[in-house]
Structure formats: structure tokens, C-alpha cells
Amino acid sequence: EAGVTQFPSHSVIEKGQTVTLRCDPISGHDNLYWYRRVMGKEIKFLLHFVKESKQDESGMPNNRFLAERTGGTYSTLKVQPAELEDSGVYFCASSQDPFGEQFFGPGTRLTVL
Amino acid sequence: KNQVEQSPQSLIILEGKNCTLQCNYTVSPFSNLRWYKQDTGRGPVSLTIMTFSENTKSNGRYTATLDADTKQSSLHITASQLSDSASYICVVRHYGGSQGNLIFGKGTKLSVKP
Q: Which residue, B2, B13, B40, B77, has fewest beta-carbon neighbours within 10 Å?
């Protein structure tokens, strides 16, 4: 069974540009989460989808971040326009139920110059 | 404030030696605690899960302990191998509230040298 996959693995963009990250969860997992780890800090929650609905988006830092999960399968996280402080590793995770184990993808390392 | 503190920040040991990683938390209400292993360039992978009533749980050479009264957990690695080199992250789940349900520590970076 394939695990959680994320694309791209690395992205380097300039301040003010737009970047879109993609996450493909484990097949059949209704719950999909986005997290971010800024250098030197702990991993922090961004938002949680149940199927195509946003269950909890309290961790989204500001309105420059837009997450979607059309059709309840893969999800995208768009940052527009990107700022220097958006640099970090963005992890996606999925789970069968909201209280079960979350399986993490390898992350996308975003560098904003 | 819900927080998870880990120590040490980094650790270097020789292959075959044992080590213990520490995790202190101030998460309430507590649901469970997981230790994750994160290899370089990979996502975190769960090693053990501990609930309120569990004191010790083993997974091969990994043994986790939990003291719910003092809100402390440890991860003991026995007879370390080179493949144990990774970051070990303590993650506490709390019930309800915003900001998701998982509170992460910063991790302990373990290096096992030959």
C-alpha cells in the first residue's frame, strides 16, 4: 500500500511568487492534515480536512494560505504571495479516523528567497 | 499553554550503546502520547503510543515509559544501531480545542557513530 506522497519535495521561490504544494493521502483515508515546521521550531498544525470539508483551519497563519481538497482525495496548499517567513518544511498526514494514528508524508521543503 | 519539551536537543552515542530521551509535557486534557522517529528527508513514523493508564510499552529495542502524574515520558533505545540515527519526536494528543489535536516537541537528534 502506498503511503502519503507529497509533491514537490523541494521548492525554491522568490518573495512575492506563488507556490502550490500537493498531498496525496493514503487511499481511503478521509482525514487529511497539513503541518509546517519552521527551522528551529516544532511541527505545528495548519488545518484538517474531513473528506472535502475543512474541519479545523485554526492553524492557518494568514489569508495568504489557501488549502483545498476538491473531491475529497488529494489536497493542495497554495501560498500567495510567499513571504520569507513562509520558509520551512510542510508535512501532510492522513488517517482513517480523526483519533487514530496519522501517517505522514515526506514533506515539501519550501525556501522563499 | 499546551507544550511539549524534549531533552537533550541532540545526542551522539557509539553503536551498541544504550540511550534515553526525555519528554515533558503540559498538555491538558491528555489523550495519548506517541514517540515518532523521523529519518532525514522522511516524514515522522510512529514507534509507540501510550495512553493514560500505561506505564511502559516496548517495540523491539525501543521502550517508552509514561508517568502521567509528573507528565513525563522517556524513550529508551537499547543496543543502538547506525540506523537509529534520526530525530525522535514526542507528540501529545489532547482532547478537543483548536489548533488541531497534536502537540509536537522539537525533537531530539540522535547520531549513532560506529
A: B40
Distance from the Cα of B92 to chain A's closest Cα (Å) equals: 12
Please list every residue in chain A whose beta carbon sits closer than 8 Å to the beta carbon of residue B93. 99
Alpha-carbon gap: B14 to the closest alpha carbon of chain A (Å): 26
Instruction: Give the residues across from B43 on adjacent strands.
Output: none
For A6-61, write each residue's pLDDT tens digit: 999 999 999 999 999 999 999 999 999 999 999 989 999 999 999 999 999 999 99
Give Dmax over CA atoms of chain B in angstroms: 45
DSSP-assigned letter for residue A13: E
* Rg of the Cα atoms in chain A: 13
Reading the block at residue B39, the C-alpha cell is 529519518
Of B36, B43, B107, the CB nearest to A105: B43
